[in-house]
Amino acid sequence: MYQVIFTFENGAAPVTATAAPGETLLETARAANVAIDAPCSGNGSCGKCRVKLLEGAVEGLQTGHITDEDYAAGWRLSCASKVTSDVTVLVPDIASAYQSRMKTADLSTGEEIAIFTRLEEDLKAAGVAFSNDFVEAEVAMEAPTLEDTMPDTERLTLALQDALGCEEVRLGYPVVHKLAAVLRHSGFHVTAAGTLRSGVMQVMDLRPFDAPQPMCGLAIDIGTTTVSAVLMDLKTGKLLAKGSGGNGQIRYGADVINRIVEQGRPGGVERLQKAIVEETLQPLTRALCRSAGVEAERILRCCVASNTTMNHLLLGVDADPVRMEPYIPTFFRWDGLKAGDIRLIANPDARVVLAPNIGSYVGGDITAGTLTSRIWDKDEFSLFIDLGTNGEIVFGNRDFMMSCACSAGPAFEGGDISCGMRATDGAVEAVTIDRETLEPVLSIVGKPGQKPVGICGSGIIDVIAELYRTSAISAKGHFVRENRRILRDEHGMGRYVLAFGSESDTGREIAITEVDIECFIRAKGAIFSAIHIMLSSLDMDVSVLEHIYVAGGIGSGINMDNAVRIGMFPDVDRELFTYIGNSSLTGAYALTLSTAAEEKVHQLASNMTYLELSTEPRYMEEFVAACFLPHTDRELFPSSVQE
Amino acid sequence: MSFVPKKQTYNARINEVVLGVGEKAVTIGGQNVLAFHTFDAEIANAPKIGVELTDAGMAMCTMPGEQKFYEGCATVADMAKRAETMEGASFICLHLEGADPNGENKSVDECVALAKSVADATDMPLVIMGCKNIEKDTELFNKIAEALSGKNILVLSARDENYKAIGAGAGLAYGQKVGAESAVDINLAKQLNTVMTQLGVNAQSIVMNIGSAAAGYGFEYVASTLDRVKDAALSQSDAMLQMPIITPVSADTWGVKESIMPEADMPEWGSQEERGIEMEIVTAAAVLASGSDAVIMRHPEAIRTIAAMIGELV
């Protein structure tokens, strides 16, 4: 056995682990719970699990991901390095970024809140009431005496029946557990929170009357790459906190298939559940509670919107049938989940609403997003596109809806891209490039003066569109111009440097390579060909579209001109496009607040037809035709021109 | 009233590409109807046949018929001179198999010298076929294109990975014709033509090789792709698919079991040479019927037969 010491660039305390001879550094890191980003699940293809050898030696080949210079400096791919002696390695910040870069949003500006209030207004206008059955009652009781010997439970029950006029009061275990203490500390003057439904009050939490805290709801969007959540006041709908973080399961694979494969290994179900619950949701919820100044027990209702694989992994149910023919998951809709069942940070009795799935590859994130898009409330045809690791598309109107899913890969969220990252501080989110000099102008997420760290989805769309517009790359995505920012490695692979080492926050060059471009072209090709196939399967084309709603957490917005220029979205009037942000999260927000919205989403789910693209014989051909800038059939994109 | 067949001609035309110089220069493409549809319109240029020779020289002649035909030839140049006399042959294709780094790894200089000797020995147009190794082919094609500057040769082929170097070198700098090879997919074929023309290579200097297979070895994909390329070129006037198509036939057919299994091992299959010739004939006939404008073949007997077929149909 050898000793492996992991030290961290971000200053975290070193971790010491033991490794069996022949084990790779990545395996050792995983066993020791050291987070190293490995989107390809450790097969040496993504090049993201770089670590720097400080002491000792490892055995393994230098792969194409590491330059000679970096190799000499000690950089190794942890998945390709077998431990053969005691070693000390440095885990760079970028590799563990998915975990450390959790971010709570600033809600003071109103921008973040606007989309939620707009959704509430829209849904109300569409006849979906924004109400729920949560109530709070303040009651003052007589303190017990030697003469008045009623136990605490009965005392509270009678007081609540009196105050609310309800027939029955049920006390949950968390309430009974702290009942004696709360009553006595408060002088028997408390507020009880819970649900009141058909004359039955279910008490979920109890607090002294003079220390009020709002009744909270927690809406969570679990994406394959990114997790985001909002904490809200259940009565007023007011947002109390908003935050996001990387999905801790990323190190077990970047896409759903790799995750399912990983959960099939011994102990895998527990490992993946732990990664999402304990390493992602728990710290995120704690951060939200801290930022809002509320206690976790005050979270009385939760809603999770996520794709089918993610909600299966969250619940710890075997997800293998999701990827195996005939692709039948454990559940589409299931209503029995409580927060305590899966150790969410919330009141253990809080119900967890799961946005319903409608197929193995169209899940709750899409049904929640469809609710948000309101395409079900219009006579005219609309298209709803959710850009995630899986691209999902819903087309229809008041009368019918059709959905399909295509595998776009994690490129929109910065995965599989050498300098890709989520849309957090330091992400390049918009780019323009000068036609003559090829010098870029970057717009970066974060405070003024923030230097770039990487590039997020919206930035990648811009770079590729701009490189194409300026004729720096060919329609295949190969570099065809010479410039000081266009460099080539020893294998002849070209890259465009957005920021040289001296200009970036990490000291490492930020560039987009031909491989990145190819990868992104495949992602956009998957999206466009899915749109094309879905419309043509109904004997329609893009001319019938009157609204296109684009969702996804790929940045603060998408430059639609650029998205059309590279052939990702159909070449129609740009006025038709609306970017609706993370619609899965806003949908989950509505589902948390409104029982009517919950009914509505189930109704939508049962009305949606699922089109399976993998059985569509023309899909592959359409996909190949779309893997070109803007498209092999140029006539589909008259407005996309090179300068 | 007598039956008058409706003529189906198209407004679009396949590009005419001239290979070689002088009297023996050949023109491929040019028609505005589907393959052999002489009842619709006159075929501008009948499909052409090229003779495949490899850098191995006489060692490539494994069949008695070939040995007899090339009898007495000492060098590849001698064989090229002899091939000129073959019935039905219009051009020579020098296949530089031995340049493959994973094989004999013949040097670029050696290959250039060989190509020069062949070009000097014959007046027929010359097609240079590479070894399928991307890096080696790139260097090889550009060096040969330079050495044979002015001979108007065709290099076979540029692919997605090296179209830039070959397009810019052999195509633009040395003015030769460039083959554009894709893997039996209409979209990939069109994409390659598009990026080559964007690079500045004249559309009239490109000949497509859309990929092939021996009959019975996934050939339906080849036939379907050929059909659709011709249909898009003619009925949809798709300029990026109007390049004429050349299909190397013998390189595929002489590698399948029907052609390489000796009679001693498979007595019930009959003569190996006959089987090989038949594989070559059926494959060549099929690609021509689907729209290929030129084929590259090997065995004199097969070439004679296909030439007779073309003669009958055009």
In brief:
Chain A has 643 residues and is of the alpha/beta class.
Explain the layout of strands and helices.
The complex is a heterodimer of chains A (643) and B (314).
Chain A lengths: L1 E7 L6 E5 L5 H7 L18 E6 L2 E2 L8 H5 L2 E3 L4 E2 L3 E5 L5 H4 L2 E2 L6 H15 L8 E7 L11 H13 L3 E4 L1 H13 L3 E9 L2 E9 L7 E7 L3 E8 L5 E8 L9 H8 L4 H25 L6 E8 L1 H8 L4 H4 L27 E4 L9 H10 L8 E5 L3 E7 L4 E7 L19 E7 L6 E5 L9 E2 L1 H13 L16 E3 L5 E6 L10 E4 H24 L9 E5 L8 H6 L11 E3 L3 H11 L1 H13 E3 L8 H8 L17
Parallel strand pairs in A: 1-7, 10-12, 13-16, 16-17, 18-27, 20-29, 21-23, 27-28
Antiparallel strand pairs in A: 1-2, 3-5, 3-7, 4-6, 8-15, 9-11, 11-12, 13-14, 14-15, 18-19, 19-20, 21-22, 24-25, 25-26
Helix pairs in contact in A: 4-15, 11-15, 11-16, 13-17, 15-16
Chain B lengths: L16 E3 L6 E3 L19 E7 L9 H6 L6 H8 L7 E5 L12 H14 L4 E4 L4 H14 L6 E5 L4 H11 L3 E5 L4 H14 L6 E4 L9 H17 L10 E3 L1 H4 L3 H4 L11 H19 L3 E4 L2 H14 L1
Helix pairs in contact in B: 2-3, 3-4, 4-5, 5-6, 10-11
Please tell me about this protein's structure.
The complex is a heterodimer of chains A (643) and B (314). With 643 residues, chain A is an alpha/beta fold. Among the domains of chain A are: 2-95, Ubiquitin-like (UB roll), CATH 3.10.20.30; 134-208, Roll (Ubiquitin-like (UB roll)), CATH 3.10.20. In chain A, 29% of the residues lie in helices and 24% in strands. Chain A has a six-stranded mixed beta sheet, with helices on both faces. A six-stranded mixed beta sheet of chain A has the order 28-27-18-19-20-29. The longest helix of chain A has 25 residues, at 268-292. Chain A is globular, with a radius of gyration of 26 Å. The N and C termini of chain A lie far apart (61 Å). By secondary structure, chain B is of the alpha/beta class. Chain B has one domain (17-313): TIM Barrel (Alpha-Beta Barrel), CATH 3.20.20. Chain B contains eleven helices and ten strands. Chain B has helices at residues 64-69, 76-83, 108-121, 134-147, 163-173, 186-199, 219-235, 250-253, 257-260, 272-290, 300-313; strands at 17-19, 26-28, 48-54, 91-95, 126-129, 154-158, 177-181, 206-209, 246-248, 294-297. In chain B, strands 8-7-6-5-4-3-10-9 form an eight-stranded parallel beta sheet. In chain B, strands 1-2 form a two-stranded antiparallel sheet. In chain B, β7 (177-181), α6 and β8 form a beta-alpha-beta unit. In chain B, α3 crosses α4 (134-147) and α4 (134-147) packs parallel to α5. Chain B is globular, with a radius of gyration of 19 Å. The model of chain B has no long low-confidence stretch (mean pLDDT 95). The chains are: A alpha/beta (643), B alpha/beta (314). The A-B interface holds A 474-476, 478, 480, 621, 624-625, 627-628, 632, 634 and B 160, 164, 185-188, 190-191, 194-195, 198-199.
